[in-house]
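DM from R.C. (forwarded with permission)

"hey, sorry to bug you on a friday — could you get me a structure for this? deadline for the figure draft is monday and I only need the backbone to look sensible"
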Amino acid sequence: MTPTDSISLPVPRKTGSSSLEETLSGRRSVRSFSKRPIPIAAVGQLLWAGQGVTAEGGRRTAPSAGGLFGLETYVACAEYLAHYLASSHELRVLRREDVRGELARAAWSQSFIRQAPLVVALTGVLKRIAGKYGEERGARYLAMEAGHAAQNILLQAEALGYASVPVGAFDDAALGEVLGLGVEEHTLYLLPIGIAASSCR
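My reply, with the result:
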């Protein structure tokens, strides 16, 4: 992997200017965004909020059944599609191109996904959890883990002054092809993120 294949992310902040209560009160689902790009420091903060390592042994910001961590995180913006590596807090670039239009088409042509300056995709690998808990219970735990991570990202977005909306309506196979997923990995959430258009606030 050449140096251009990875992007180091700034060290995440552990303090903020708004309280949890203020952030919870302000969070709304928004489907219209300005074109203003999201700075790399904010991208890193959002990813850390969802899946950042916070303790020895790789413990993360979101709980995971048995500490098995079945989630993976991807980001798409105008310049690239990348995979978030939680252990090193960096991005591994998969494609140096804008795939947001492809993501929108795979999500049944929901145009706001193409419009958002950043799209976070949460995917899951069931076999990491099913080996301990079985497939039925493991699938439930994986869905819970995705919900925890998604809410963390949504709240971090609000705290940073951005808006988002959780998206679960998409063609699994088409989205997996865009993201380059293997047969055992499936998309659970899309989270388009950006500055809310003025009419939405």
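R.C.: lifesaver. Residues 29-200 form a domain with the NADH Oxidase fold (CATH 3.40.109.10).
me: no worries. Residues 135-159 form the longest helix (25 residues).
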